[in-house]
Amino acid sequence: DIGGEFGPYYQSQRLELYQKWAKWLVENDKAYYAYDTPEELEQINQERRAKKLPPGYDGRHRDLTDEQRAAYEAEGRTPVIRFKMRREGTTQVHDLVQGDVEFRNNTLQDIVLLKSDGFPTYHLAHVMDDHFMEITHVTRSNE
């Protein structure tokens, strides 16, 4: 540890923070628990390929009832937490390099924020780390 005012710097030492805010997103209807097995996720992708759609998640666990969640948990399934992407309209952002960028929301999928082992994905970790470490500018490659 080299010190610094924004530590800890290892994600494994920040799990409580990620888990707390992922749960907050669920409680505020911005994210949800998804209990899909790897086999079910593969089936979703096969169905999408058959329809000539790109691979991705179809949001089938987006609106589970408490009873449905309890049934999955009774089976021993451990959920991931997925972000509820907007489905209608567009999202616009201003990028300092590319200018105004617009995304059609119906082309975006509900991304995994927290894996079933409690570790964050990049999609959650980098946003939280940038915020809590007071990062103001980030340069990333075009993907």
Q: Can you tell me the CATH superfamily?
A: Glutamyl-tRNA Synthetase, Domain 3
Spatial separation of the terminal alpha carbons:
32 Å
> How would you spell out the order of helices and strands?
HEHHEEEEH
For this structure, what is the CATH class?
Answer: Alpha Beta
Low-confidence stretches: none
CATH level-two architecture: Alpha-Beta Complex
Rg from C-alpha positions?
17 Å
CATH topology: Glutamyl-tRNA Synthetase, domain 3
Shape type: globular
Description:
The strands form two sheets. This protein has a three-stranded antiparallel beta sheet. The chain has a two-stranded antiparallel sheet with strand order 3-4. The protein has a single domain, classed as Glutamyl-tRNA Synthetase, Domain 3 (Glutamyl-tRNA Synthetase, domain 3). The radius of gyration is 17 Å and the shape is globular. It is an alpha+beta fold. The chain starts with 14 loop residues before the first helix and ends in an 11-residue tail after the last helix. The mean pLDDT is 92.
